[in-house]
Amino acid sequence: MCVLFFLSSMFFYIGLSLRLKNIAEVIRAKVRKICQITFFISVKGENRLLKYAQIQLTAKDYDAS
What we know:
Low-confidence stretches: none
Distance between the termini: 95 Å
Order of helices and strands: H
Mean pLDDT: 75
Number of strands: 0
Largest sheet: none
Structural class: mainly alpha
């Protein structure tokens, strides 16, 4: 009886650890995706700022001439 209890608890622990490992992988993947999206948005924002700065510079060049 004791051996049976030990085996069942061991299998339960292995199953639980595998499930937690899966959950951790899913969370890691979601966090990675969110980071990629925010990085993409920030890069797009920087590109817009750079384009705006270039437009401002070219406008100043035209004013100078």
